[in-house]
Amino acid sequence: MKVTHAGRRITVNVTADGDGLVSHAGSALLVQVADLSGLTVALSEAISEPGLRVGSHDRGRVICDLAVMLADGGDCLADLRAVADQAVLFGATASPSTAFRVIDRIATTPGLLDGLRDAHAVARGRVWGMAGAPDRVTIDLDATLVTAHSEKDRAAGTFKGGYGFAPMLAYADETGEAMGAELRPGKAGANNAADQIAVAQEAVCQIPDAYRETIEIALRVDTAGACHELLDWCREGRILFSVGYDLTETVRAAILQIAEADWESSLDQDGDERPNGQVCEVTHHLQLSGWPEGSRVIVRRERAHPGAQLTFTDADGHRFQAILTDHTGQIAEIERDHRGRARVEDHIRNDKNTGLSNLPFRDFEHNQVWLQIVHLAHDLINWTQRLLLTGELAKCEPKRLRYRLLHIAARLSFHARTATLRLPASWPWATELTNAFTRLGELPTLA
């Protein structure tokens, strides 16, 4: 093996006598955030196991270690070794078999999965207290497909010809946090109102108690959300809604009645006018008495992009999309806000890189617990960025964060009853990681 040093190629001697070296040093932030947010304590109380022998692993700590492992890039129980092999940095970690027994107990004991969710909400409340609560919570609902590569309980064929599961997921747009998840067979439809209501209700319950009654809540879904049961549930719960709306023959006829002068420019996410795109309200052309009172239909049109295929129903070379909403205000702003729903796709993609793409167990109930731990991992990353990081690192996706901070190697040295984690001075983001640990020490600890 050779490396380049001072413009010269030099042969490298490899030895196994290094001392105090640790890898994934930045992932220690995740462990500390789990403790600081109260997640570890809340989980320990929610899933405590009576009769454990002295010295047994705390059950809440086991779940936190699994969440840290997933946030660090692992995707199966065996990847706990990435944490366990560095006990000097992360402390004693349960074996994969012990971790499975904890998951099995949560999956088979009534009420423990709900306890895990409740602990998640408790920690969220503490984080909101430190980082600030949003003025509004917009819940984005979406379903996705997860492939199963072996026989698994309730795995089924999907509408895309695959085989696996179709979990329904919910995220808060303003904060980027994971708010709800339900595992479903692959044949489950995206427009199943009962599933949508269950996940939306779970998301509402994830809003901390101190904010739930006063904060404004909105729900955004694609066209799968245009069902009476879901929107009636929103109205009963005083939740605003914005969902995709099918371009039926009635809607198309209404679009053709719109005068050219009635179209107004749509807006981009920064509030500037878009060069390609106009919006118009067609509520007065439609019969919406079956929908909640105050419902509106807003249509957006835009020229097809070069190379895109038009259909015979695309009038005058435009493509159209419609939304059904009960929001009040300017239609361009309402339509712009609805397009922000696309961010849910980014959250799902990132979660598939944080353990969601591999549901490792045979039994359905065990995989449901795994799905909840994936959402814990999602929020550990989110809370770490909100509380400790600034600039690009506070917004970057998990894959980049792992490369720049979480997976950095360091030397842990001890002297005079103090420990020092020495980061490589040449690493471009060493200062950012040092500052993150400094901010961590300035945050209030649990009483």
Q: What does this 3D model show about the protein?
A:
- By secondary structure, this protein is of the alpha+beta class.
- It has a domain at 18-111 and 360-442.
- It is 39% helix and 19% strand.
- The chain is built from 16 helices and 17 strands.
- It has a 9-stranded mixed beta sheet, with helices on both faces. A 3-stranded antiparallel beta sheet has the order 3-16-17, with no helix packed on it.
- A hairpin with a 2-residue loop joins strand 16 and strand 17.
- It is globular, with a radius of gyration of 25 Å.
- The protein starts with a strand and ends in a 5-residue tail after the last helix.
- The mean pLDDT is 92.
Write the topology of this structure:
Elements (H helix, E strand, L loop, with lengths): L1 E4 L2 E4 L9 E2 L5 H9 L2 H8 L12 H13 L9 H4 L2 H4 L5 H13 L3 H20 L4 E8 L2 E2 L8 E2 L5 E3 L2 E5 L5 E5 L10 H13 L3 H4 L3 E6 L6 H9 L3 E6 L3 H8 L7 E4 L5 E9 L14 E8 L14 E8 L5 H9 L3 H14 L7 H25 L9 H9 L3 E6 L2 E5 L7 H13 L5
Parallel strand pairs: 4-10, 10-11
Antiparallel strand pairs: 1-2, 3-16, 4-8, 5-7, 6-7, 8-9, 11-15, 12-13, 13-14, 14-15, 16-17
Helix pairs in contact: 1-14, 2-3, 2-7, 3-6, 3-14, 6-14, 7-14, 8-10, 13-14
